[in-house]
Design brief:
The complex is a heterodimer.
Chain A lengths: L1 E6 L2 E6 L6 H8 L18 E4 L2 E4 L12 E3 L13 H8 L9 H14 L5 H7 L11 H16 L2
Parallel strand pairs in A: 1-5
Antiparallel strand pairs in A: 1-2, 3-4, 3-5
Helix pairs in contact in A: 2-5
Chain B lengths: L20 H5 L15 E7 L5 E7 L1 H4 L4 E5 L9 E2 L6 E2 L5 E2 L5 E7 L2 H10 L1 E6 L29 E10 L2 H7 L2 E9 L11 E6 L5 E4 L5 H12 L6 E4 L12 H17 L3 E4 L2 H7 L5 E10 L5 E11 L7 H11 L8 E9 L14 H19 L3 H8 L19 H11 L2 H8 L7 E13 L9 E8 L5 E5 L8 H13 L6 E3 L18 H28 L7 E3 L2 E3 L5 E2 L1 H10 L5 E7 L5 E2 L4 E2 L5 E13 L5 E11 L6 H20 L5 E2 L2 E2 L17 E7 L21 H13 L10 H6 L29 E2 L2
Parallel strand pairs in B: 1-14, 12-13, 16-17, 20-21, 29-32
Antiparallel strand pairs in B: 1-7, 2-6, 2-8, 3-7, 4-5, 9-17, 10-15, 11-12, 11-14, 15-16, 18-28, 19-20, 19-25, 22-23, 23-24, 26-27, 28-29, 30-31
Helix pairs in contact in B: 5-6, 8-9, 9-17, 13-14, 14-15, 16-17
The chains are: A alpha+beta, B alpha+beta.
The complex binds FE2/S2 (inorganic) cluster (FES) (2 copies).
Chain lengths: ~160, ~800
């Protein structure tokens, strides 16, 4: 079937079977491999994307459910000049990245949180990341990076 | 060393950015599952659905009739049936004659799509004749135990893996008999899954000359290359192994990846097309090796003033159906079993046995987390019994500079344990909390605070030859390229090597590019294990960069017409006696004009050490790292729920080379230790794994892991680069016992088994499954990964 939606700000139309997930649609039909698969059962958050402003696990969304929606993936997160945005830069600066496989999902979770709550406490940041597993970092530097981004964005006029 | 390099450090130990971080935060980093190669086929394995059986019939020809299937292989397709393994050669790339665990690969099929490959797998005719199976490691060496391991010629029980690993000092029985206080305790640590978020996968591409290029997220590409050459019957020159970005490993991506590599490489050679295999999470959990389970009994003898006198320790390691690296795990466990204390006498014996419970291999900590859980709780029990503060008891007994370890090794430098312990005590407000929490009377929630200390032998020790090589060269565009045979699977070692090369060469880290580990370009440096990369690989890199630096210094001296000793550096530039700065690029150009070759390599071997396996005495490791962790917990006495409130971790890791990376290793290790302590339950029920995805195998989330205060004590080690030691493994070693001791402090109840789940906290025992429960075979189901098909994309 034909699925049409807004992907990272651009209208797309894809021909794909109706019984695949949004994750597979992104990775296998649109060649956007920044979104990862860690479990395929909605438990790890490696496949997290933003769908109509909300964080969802794309392995738990059927591809046709994207119809008419606005989807943002890691490939759609960047600064105006195409380089890393402030959140991505803080991930680098605070050492929040190790093996990196969870990181696209973490960035999406961080973006989704900051859109909804520009003033999160550390506990609120931890709560917002609770669906995103990371086996490498112990989360602390990821929390640091999101906290620093929140502060930075608040300081912006 | 020239006087120039004695200036204060510029890059080492300073804030730095991880070299591969940008690619990872933008989603551009390519992991195996992200590769899209033209003509790529997909492979899948037929895996055993029973724990122990004889293969009586195996016919893959029906698979070849399935639409889309290109080829299918069994052990017959490998040299010597694909037998491999180190230190014990006991496993086949595909099962031969027998299967010994649920999930063992029997055959592999390659097809146009994963679905077609799976249909091919289902068409294979495979008849298995069940054999009596062995699930209780404590029964493994009984004369009538079912034989799981291969026959042995030396008269030992075939279920014994390797040998008994012993450590002996004096007469432990006599010393224990003379001790006024003796504790005799049993502990058990359960299996642990690595749970790297990237499941296993391998891609093989056949080459025109009849060889194969394998992209494998393994830890040690050279071992993979050696295995592949051996089982494929190819010279090593036709087998190239490249490590792509690895999505976590923690010891877990060795044997399982070697095996998958052999399967896809063979299929690629047969079909003449690229072949990839990617595991689902369920397949990863069922097929891959884990941290072993360990049954321990410890007898600790002491004087009434708390002076430790004797330690007697017995450990039986259930490492499942194959040896993998567990004989080495047993050795490391034996060396660390008595903890980082002084004793008059000790008697340690640890051995591994075969069972039909999956299989175990390397996992961060490598035997030490298991034994640390036992000894650090027993020491706490002793402190309770004697009414001595647990930290005071440890300070009284723990190893100090100048002491001789129980193995007979004199500690002549870099022993920072006392400072770790006293610092942790101070920053955690231990004394106040310990007293205050001791007075709690609530029947709802209680807090507790507990401590554990540890030491961890650096690098391989007496496990094997310990050396590494590195290369460095200046490219035409003045960038610097470095290689190492030791790899970075998320640990940050590429950044460590970059900083070391920058420091020695006196150039900005941005100028340096580290190549991906590749058997074609790097120097074989042994396995990337045992947290040895910074020290052994770092020293090799330092030497390589120094060798190149000497060449540039000569060119600069020639250009500036002075003696090399008169040169000073200003940033990258060279300055001679007339104080005019010459750009680094100019010096490089001049070196080329002089005909000097702008590349170098370095090779470093660890100091010689010796261990006498027969007498259990010697120098097991060149040196040790030390650490103390304190955990504060809140226990809900109504539900058994344990919340860890804070962890203070103070580790002596020598000079810190890449601080941000070292803290990341510390926090990450602690999180794994926390999961090991509380939630990560692996259950083999009659050989069937009951936890096959993250909804049942619970690794810590961001709300389970508390804020952590980490401090490094930099007790420099003279053989480490800049005095560095290591951190990766030691971080998780003391976490579980610190949490267990905190729980005992809060509740007065000691849990001697891992994981410390709700029922063990609440009831002090397990809830048994009802007797009628059949082995949950239904839990064993491996879903197929979905369709990587390319389809037209239209942008409107
Ligand atoms: S892959 Fe979607 S949540 Fe794990
Ligand atoms: S960085 Fe490896 S899983 Fe998060």
């Amino acid at each position: 079937m034909r699925i049409e939606f807004i992907l990272n700000g651009e209208a797309v139309a894809v021909e794909a079977p109706p019984d695949i997930t949004l994750l597979d649609l992104l990775r296998d039909y649109l060649n956007l491999t920044g979104t990862k698969e860690g479990c395929a059962v909605g438990e790890c958050g490696a496949c997290a994307v933003i769908k109509d402003g909300r964080l969802v696990n794309s392995c738990m969304v059927l591809a046709p459910q994207a119809e008419g929606c606005e989807i943002v993936t890691i490939e759609g997160v960047h600064a105006a000049d195409g380089g890393p945005n402030d959140l991505q830069q803080h991930f680098i600066e605070y050492g929040a990245v190790q093996c990196g496989i969870c990181i696209p999902g973490m960035i999406m979770a961080g973006e989704a949180l900051l859109r909804q709550n520009p003033h999160p406490t550390r506990a609120e940041i931890r709560l917002a990341l609770a669906g995103n597993l990371c086996r490498c970092t112990g989360y602390q530097q990821i929390v640091d990076a999101i906290e620093a981004t929140a502060k930075g964005r608040r300081a912006q006029p | 060393m020239s006087h120039i390099t004695q200036q204060p450090l510029t890059y080492v130990g300073k804030p730095a950015r991880r070299v591969d971080a940008l690619d990872k935060v933008t989603g551009r980093a390519k992991y195996i599952a992200d590769y899209r190669v033209p003509g790529m086929l997909h492979a899948r394995c037929l895996r055993s659905t029973v724990p122990h059986a004889r293969i009586v019939r195996l016919d893959v020809t029906p698979a070849l009739k399935v639409p889309g299937v290109h080829a299918a292989i069994t052990s017959e397709d490998f040299v010597d049936h694909g037998l491999y393994g180190f230190p014990i050669k006991d496993k086949y790339m595909l099962a031969y004659q027998k299967v010994r665990y649920v999930g063992e690969p029997i055959a592999a099929v390659v097809a146009d799509t994963p679905q077609a490959a799976q249909a091919g797998v289902q068409a294979i005719v495979c008849e298995l004749e069940l054999l009596p199976a062995l699930f209780d490691a404590r029964r493994a060496l009984d004369p009538d135990a079912p034989q799981v391991g291969p026959d042995r010629a030396d008269g030992q029980h075939p279920n014994l893996k390797g040998d008994h690993m012993i450590v002996c000092k004096g007469d432990a029985e006599a010393e224990l008999a003379a001790c006024p206080i003796v504790l005799d305790r049993e502990y058990f640590t359960d299996w642990q899954e690595h749970a790297y978020i990237e499941p296993e996968g391998v891609l093989a591409i056949p080459t025109p000359e009849g060889g194969v290029v394998v992209y494998a997220p393994n830890q040690s590409p050279f071992i993979n290359q050696g295995n592949l050459a051996m089982v494929l019957g190819l010279p090593k020159s036709l087998v190239r192994v490249i490590q792509p970005t690895v999505g976590g490993s923690f010891g877990g991506k060795d044997d399982i990846i070697y095996e998958s590599s052999a399967q896809v490489a063979k299929l690629a050679l047969l079909t003449g097309r690229p072949v990839r295999m990617v595991f689902s999470r369920e397949e990863s959990m069922v097929a891959s090796y884990k941290r072993d389970a360990m049954h321990m009994r410890i007898r600790l003898g002491a004087d009434r003033d708390g002076t430790l006198r004797a330690c007697w320790f017995r450990g039986i390691i259930d490492s499942g159906a194959y040896a993998s690296e567990t004989p080495f795990t047993a050795w490391r466990a034996s060396i660390h079993a008595m903890g980082c204390y002084r004793y008059q006498a000790c008697d340690v014996d640890v051995h591994c046995v075969y069972t039909n419970n999956g299989y175990a291999g390397a996992f961060r900590g490598f035997g030490n987390p298991e034994v640390c859980f036992a000894v650090e709780q027993t020491v706490d029990e002793l402190a309770d019994l004697l009414g001595i503060d647990p930290i005071d008891l440890r300070l009284k007994n723990c190893l100090r500079l100048g002491d001789e370890t129980v193995h007979g090794q004199k500690l002549t430098e870099s022993v920072g344990l006392i400072e770790c312990l006293t610092t942790a005590r101070r920053i955690s407000d231990w004394d106040r909390k310990r007293a205050e929490y001791g007075r709690q009377t609530s029947t709802e929630k209680r807090r507790g605070i507990g401590v554990a200390v540890m030491y961890h032998g650096m690098s391989l020790g007496a496990e094997g030859a310990d050396s590494a090589g590195a290369t460095i060269s200046i490219l035409p565009d003045y960038s610097v390229e470095i290689t190492s045979g030791l790899t970075d699977y998320g640990t940050g070692s590429r950044t460590v090597f970059t900083l070391i090369a920058a420091e020695e060469l006196g150039v900005r880290p941005e100028r340096i590019h580290m190549q991906r580990p590749d058997t074609n370009t790097a120097i074989d440096s042994g396995p990337t294990v045992a947290s040895r990369t910074t020290v052994v690989g770092g020293n090799a890199m330092r030497l390589a960069a120094r060798n190149l630096r000497q060449t540039l210094d000569m060119a600069a001296a020639n250009l500036l017409q002075c003696d090399p000793r008169q040169l000073i550096r200003d940033g990258e530039a060279y300055i001679g006696p007339d104080e005019e700065a010459v750009a680094w690029e100019k010096v490089v150009d001049h070196a080329r004009r002089l005909g000097l070759i702008l590349s170098a390599h370095g090779h470093w071997s660890a100091p010689k050490i010796a261990w006498d396996h027969h007498h259990g005495r010697g120098t097991p490791y060149m040196a040790y790292v030390y650490g103390a962790q304190i955990a504060e917990v809140e226990v809900d006495l109504r539900t058994g729920n344990v919340q860890v409130l804070h962890i203070w971790a103070v580790h002596d890791i020598g000079k810190v080379v890449f601080p941000q990376g070292a803290y990341g290793q510390l926090y990450g290790g602690i999180a794994q230790g926390l999961g090991y302590a509380l939630t990560e339950q692996i259950t083999y029920r009659e050989g069937y794994l009951q936890q096959t995805n993250f909804e049942s195998y619970l690794i810590p989330t961001s709300v389970d892991v508390p804020e952590i205060t980490g401090v490094f004590v930099e007790s420099a080690y003279s053989h480490g680069p800049y005095g560095a030691k290591n951190i990766a493994e030691p971080a998780l070693v003391p976490t579980a016992p610190a949490i267990a001791n905190a729980i005992a402090h809060a509740t007065g109840r000691r849990v001697r088994e891992l994981p410390i789940n709700l029922e063990r906290v609440l009831l002090g025992r397990d809830l048994q499954p009802p007797a009628s429960t059949q082995p949950a075979r239904a839990a064993f189901h491996i879903p197929v990964r979905s369709t990587p098909q390319t389809a037209p994309v239209a942008r409107t």
